[in-house]
Amino acid sequence: MSEASRRPGAGLDTSVPNIARMNDYFLGGKDNFAADRKAAEEVLAVAPEVRAMTHEAQAFLGRVVRYLVGQGMTQFVVIGSGLPNRRNVHQVAQEIVPGTRVVYVSRDPVVLSHARATLATNPYTTAVEGDVLHPRELLADPELLRLVNLDLPVAVLILSALQFIPDEDDPHKSVAILRDAVPVGSHFGIGHVVFDTRQEVKAPLVEIFQRVLGRTEDASRRSEQVLRFFDGLELVDPGLVYVRHWRPDNPLAAQGRDKTWTMGGVARKVEG
């Protein structure tokens, strides 16, 4: 990406850190500004493993997409997508099945702008404005419906958004609405940072992200709370696990003590 293409757009306040651009910084990208880097470094000062967690989550995404395409999924809705990178969902899926349809969903104008520019020449992929907390509006979006046939199984990926949404917003209900709206045979892939361990870093990290997001609620969860997002679905092996243990490409590399704490799983809808 050229330096010119990374200049802030009109109306973009680069003095305010942004979750997507912080994530880009953790991944070693260049689509970030000084405020994003400052907030990201505050996170790393508390928990240096967050950079590794971001890379593990990216690898988990690739494995999930390959698995789902292998299960016959040719329609993907990616909710809370981040900035485009080298291995996006559509790239992984369309390498296997070229006609796979992918809809990226975000409220972030930075993400939407980048995504639309990146996807402009891909007829099977698009980006729409929306979020997991407004599932009915999302599934009625004309641009989404242009690519996705909701009478056929769809893969819904929510791999990073839920960990920033507090219980006060009732994200479990929103995921349940999505679950009920898609047909039998659909799959859900969910990822979430958990605080089963590393309790000593929870409070300072929560404070940083509250400041970044302009919220006062605590959105942190333990694994049993994340498991509730799969209610009414059938988890596929190996269930909800630390992401490095989810169908690893190299099982030996996934062994050892977990020093990172992002969990994820995939489940299928088996009943209407």
SS class: alpha/beta
Flag low-confidence runs: 1-10
Helical proportion?
25-40%
CATH architecture descriptor of the domain at 56-196 and 224-268: 3-Layer(aba) Sandwich
Under the CATH scheme, which class of the domain at 56-196 and 224-268?
A: Alpha Beta
Average pLDDT number: 92
CATH topology grouping of the domain at 56-196 and 224-268: Rossmann fold
Quick one: overall form?
globular
Reported for the largest beta sheet, the result is: 8 strands, mixed
Beta-sheet strand percentage?
Answer: 5-15%
- Terminal Cα separation, in Å? 45 Å
Query: What is the H/E string?
Result: HHHEHEHEHHEHEHHEEE
Annotation field: number of helices: 10
Backbone CA Rg: 18 Å
E-strand count = 8
The CATH homologous superfamily of the domain at 56-196 and 224-268 is called: Vaccinia Virus protein VP39
Question: What is the topological layout?
Answer:
Blueprint: H1 19-26, H2 34-46, H3 50-70, E1 75-79, H4 89-96, E2 101-106, H5 109-119, E3 125-129, H6 135-139, H7 142-147, E4 155-158, H8 171-181, E5 187-193, H9 199-213, H10 223-227, E6 234-235, E7 241-242, E8 262-268
Parallel strand pairs: 1-2, 1-4, 2-3, 4-5
Antiparallel strand pairs: 5-8, 6-8, 7-8
Helix pairs in contact: 1-2, 2-9, 3-4
